[in-house]
Write the structure tokens for this entry.
Amino acid sequence: MCHHFKYLTKNKNGFLIYCYKSKAYQLSYKNLNFNLSDYELNSLVRYLKAIDCTYWEKEYENSIYEKKIPIPTLQNNFMILLEPHEVAELLSLLDFNRKSGFLSYNDINYPMNLN
């Protein structure tokens, strides 16, 4: 187990850590895992902020896929598809400069009965 890392952000679907030894970030979101340099992380954040979710949902409204927002990769035969709330959740995960706030009931990974 590497002891040279620090959790920067974490939510119910993923986390962002920084490894001091390799000077790299590791982003884990749902079933995706990325190892990113500082430049790559900043590029990903800029790309995600520039996505027009409404446009992509309209563009692919007749798609067979439930998720409509494409994130291209350098591999020609691989595309990441997300829903608008996943783009927002991923962006909040990448915002490691934000102040800690209160958790909502959605952030708690525990079966809960609301009375």
In short: The CA atoms of residues 59 and 103 lie 34 Å apart. The chain has a mean pLDDT of 86. Strands lie at 5-11, 14-19, 24-29, 32-36, 69-72, 79-82.
